[in-house]
# Entry
Amino acid sequence: MQIKRSSGILLHPTSLPGPYGIGSLGGEAYKFIDFLNTARQTVWQILPLGPTGYGDSPYSAFSAFAGNPMLICLERLVEAGDLDAEDLAGVSMGEGEAHFGFVHGFKGRLLHKASQRFRKQASAERRNAFDTFCAKQGYWLDDYALFQALRRHFADKPWYDWPQEIRLRKPSAVTEWKERLEEAVCYHRYVQFVFFDQWLALKDYANSRDIKIMGDLPIFVALDSADVWANPGQFRLDEQGRPTHVAGVPPDYFSSTGQRWGNPLYRWESMASDGYSWWLARFRWNLVLTDLVRIDHFRGFEACWVIPAEEETAINGQWEKVPGDELFQTLFDCLGDAPIVAEDLGVITPEVEALRDRFGFPGMKILQFAFGSGPQNPYLPHNLQRNCIVYTGTHDNNTTAGWWHDLDTTERNQVLAYLGADGKDIAWQLVRVAMASVAELCICPLQDILSLGGQARMNAPGTSKGNWGWRLQTEMLNGEIEERLATLTNTYGRAPA
# Structure
């Protein structure tokens, strides 16, 4: 993938401002795109867009294909005639932290009302658009809508705790439950129709303003997902639908027991036998929704850490090879030169680097990882190559100001010596050195552009509480920030022509 010298901002849509608990695909998203355009940015990086499960993590979704209903803009539904303006009157949660619990209740209730009105009153044009969407996306939508309807019917129990006939997808049971839950199935189809109608309109607007959107594709899917329930033969499950092995990473400097993620592992031999059709469909759909795709945990396509499901930690796992070369060759043969970015962080072997470089995928370089180990550190700007993406930090890091606050005196002095700076404006000093680097693309979390401290951190890996909640407040993006970012972008040759 060839990237022109450019820069962009990392911000998930849930972090946008707005009155209803989290950000949405409405007016504030369009205003953010306008900010990016005026600030001379050309990339908006987001996190996965799927319907979130436990902990509201975008990396734990009920589907690898569906969209998150909680991001739907309610005002757009009023404009479409599916809701009344009175439905939104007097409701405001302010612009502080995300209020996911409120959003699930409030927005869920209104989406059900909107769905019922759509079924009764939608124009012929919108009905045709809905029917077309359902037909084109039926390869994932039919299973997903039934999965969600069943999950609600069975009191939100995971699919592997459902009655055996439907858990194992006996054809007669699938037919029976589709009929019994027809109204709920139609609701979930409507919600997905609305989500992708709004998302694709937003993406079109971004592209019209010369902004590309970089999406995020996690390598693994959640066990309790429509993907695993609908495709059990593609995953390492026993006869009852329970995983025999799960994913994670081995013990390292950060954790003496490693990380046991719990995601089911793929049966790669089964996927290869049908030409990797599930992966092709997944990449094809993601490349419709975004302009670039970041693959999370890219090293897992060369080898992954396999943990017996009965193990409580990741200690007793082992590395197993994965046919990533064959998968990506199939992908390129079918889809052409896909614009893919490899998240190649962590302990990366020469084999992983070879897989990345064989297909020309740019990797990621994080400045917060660059200091403390001498001038040969591969993340230091003077060691970077052009075909990479440089970041001050990512959604999994502390903010740069928070990182700086936590450094010891020795490492602080090493940072200051390298930057030739005083550290009084550390976030922007790192932004400047990232912009000045030879990396073709520079991405900074919006929190660093705003010089926010550790309280604005998005996620702390290995913890299950207190994540994903940071939100932008409207007054933070002022003309001064816009002009400062535009000036730096112009100075280092990253602005669009």
About this structure: The chain has 18 helices and twelve strands.
